[in-house]
Each structure stands twice: as C-alpha cells, then as structure tokens.
Design goal:
Elements lengths: L1 H15 L4 H8 L3 H13 L4 E4 L5 E4 L12 H10 L4 H4 L3 H14 L2 H11 L22 H13 L1 E7 L7 E13 L2 E8 L2 E6 L3 E10 L8 H13 L5 E7 L4 H5 L4 E7 L5 E7 L2 H11 L3 E5 L1 H18 L1
Keywords: DNA-binding, Transcription, Transcription regulation
Pfam families: HTH_11 (PF08279), WCX (PF25583), WYL (PF13280)
InterPro entries: CBASS_pafABC_assoc_protein, DeoR_HTH, HTH_11, PafC-like, WCX_dom, WH-like_DNA-bd_sf, WH_DNA-bd_sf, WYL_dom
C-alpha cells in the first residue's frame, strides 16, 4: 500500500510541479506527517525530491525525472483519459485504483500528447452528480464490504454466498455462480446462476456477501452484452408485471415511457393526449410512475391503481389542509 502511495506522490509532483505537504496529504488522503515521512523515504531512495521554503514553498522534483509510454497517439490518449472520468469504476469500488492508474498514464505520455489530451478532457464533463436544477441524480452508495467480495468472486471465478433482500421479503442467504457485473444508470447488477438457473441481483439489495473458495460453475468465456440483452427481454415479458392504460400529455410521454418496462400500444386522442398501454414491474412501480406526472397523466386502468392514486392524493390534501 505504501509503495503505491509513494508512486502516486512522485507522479503528482511530476504532473503538477511544486506542491505543499497539505495539498499532497489531501490528494493522497493521508496526514501531513505521513507525507513528510514519505518525502524522506523517497529522498533516501535516491528520488530527486527537494523542499522549497517560503510563502510559495513546497516540495518538487528536479527536472528530467520521467519515462515515456510509446505507441499511443493523441486520440488514443484522449479516449483513455475520458474513459477514466466515468463513474463505472467508482461504482465497482475501483475509484481510487482508477485515479492512480490515470496518474501513471498521464505521466508516461510524451509531453506534447499529455498536454493536449489533458486539456481536452478538462472540457468534457460526463455524468455530473446533479442536473441543472441541482437535483442529485439517482445513485446507490454500496458499501465496499459488499462490493469487494462480489467483485473478487466475479474476477477470480469463485462461487459467491450472498444475503439478498428481495422486495417485500425477508433477506435470505443463497449461493450463486457469478457471471459478471453490469452498471446501468448508476445501478449495479450481478448476473449469476443459481442451481443452473439464470439470476439477476441488484447490488443495493445485497446486505452481506462472501466469496467462497470453490470455483464457480460458469463458462470460460462470456458475451456479457448479449447475456444482458437476453435477460432484459425475458424480464420485459414476465408474467407478474402490471399492465396499465393511461392518458398522458405529449410533453410528458418520455417521462412515463422511460420508467415503464415496456410499451404495448399508443394512440392519439381527440384532445391531443396520448393513450398508452404500458407494463410496470409491479403495482408500486406503476403508482410511483403515474404520481410523478401529476395532472399531466391519468391512469385509466386497472381500477386498483386509480384507487391507490386517489388515496395518495387525498392523504396529501389532508396533510396540507
């Protein structure tokens, strides 16, 4: 762990020049005392690091301390750095590893490519944490104690024991054979098999996980994109879903369609509203989706959904009197 931190410290000084102990401590997520000890260790090992005193002082490296990564052109370097800005690595618990890797990549690039590629990536923002109204995007903060054993089992091909809380049910233990991890709109899913049957688990519903020593029973190679599409098709055609008929203002069509599992029929009414027949995962999912539309949407059927929405509206009126 310390060796990785020493490398990161050197790379920070290479790329950003003179830095204070406080800034280095913040970047490396350690104390300033630890930074000072690391500086001493680097100096003792022959790394040309020196201290500059004064108001604008700090630590720096003597010029010329670098290696180059050959074979990458400007567009390849830029694509790699842009990929490093995505939140997928963070979702899989690899955020700090990705940050360290990006430091090494940038440091190893030839100077002209490193300068232009880094400048370009500063002008692209991918998946910010909030929208223009400062509303946080839906994300799931999954503990490292859950992500780490699942990730390990997937990467090393070992069986996995998870305690899973399916909606409306008591958490239970189950042993699965992991196939891969998929992140979609900041939601993470584990694709696996259980007793030979396909299973898909949402990581936010895993309350405990343990990688087992025995090897997983799974193919040596997998087309994860194809597996995901096939499971999505089966999910959308499932028999336990709720089919809803609704009237929607045209301007809110996408809001409803994007939350539905599938759209079965659509036609335009005389008043300009759209009559849609859509499927939802269950009644609670349907109620939530229609409620988000306010008066721009109206559930026509089933009656149970209309009743649920009416009761919710009545409770809201009563609350605000």
């Amino acid at each position: 762990m310390r060796a990785d931190r020493l490398v990161s410290l050197v790379l920070l000084l290479r790329q950003r020049g003179r830095l204070t102990a406080d800034i280095l401590a913040k970047e490396l997520e350690v104390s300033t005392r630890t930074v000072l000890r690391d500086i001493e260790a680097l100096s003792a090992a022959g790394v040309p690091v020196y201290a500059e005193r004064g108001r604008h002082g700090g630590f720096a490296l003597l010029p010329g301390f670098r290696t180059e990564l050959t074979g990458l052109n400007h567009d390849e370097a830029m694509a790699l750095l842009i990929a490093g800005s995505r939140r997928g690595a963070q979702a899989f618990g690899l955020g700090s590893a990705l940050a360290s890797a990006m430091l090494k990549v940038v440091d190893a690039l030839p100077p002209t490519i490193a300068e232009t590629a880094t400048d370009v990536t500063q002008r692209l923002l991918i998946d910010p944490e909030t929208d223009l109204l400062s509303r946080p995007l839906d994300t799931e903060d999954i503990p490292e104690s859950i992500v780490a054993p699942i990730r390990s089992a997937v990467f090393t091909g070992r069986r996995l024991r998870i305690r899973y809380a399916a909606p409306g049910r008591t958490p239970t233990w189950r042993t699965v054979d992991p196939i891969g991890l998929v992140t979609v709109r900041d939601l993470i899913y584990l694709l696996a098999t259980r007793s030979g049957a396909d299973r898909t688990y949402r990581l936010s519903r895993v309350v405990a996980a343990e990688a087992l020593p025995e090897p997983a029973r799974r193919p040596d190679r997998v087309d994860l994109d194809r597996v995901w599409r096939e499971r999505g098709t089966r999910f959308r055609s499932g028999g336990d879903q709720l089919v809803v008929s609704a009237l929607v203002h045209p301007g809110r069509r996408e809001d409803l369609v994007n939350t539905a599992v599938a759209v079965h029929a659509e036609e335009v009414e005389q008043d300009g509203r759209l009559r849609l027949e859509v499927s939802f995962q269950d009644a609670r999912h349907a109620e939530w989706a229609l409620w988000q539309l306010g008066t721009d949407g109206e559930a026509l059927s089933p009656q149970s959904l209309r009743t649920a929405l009416r009761d919710r509206a009545t409770a809201m009126i009563s609350h605000y009197g």
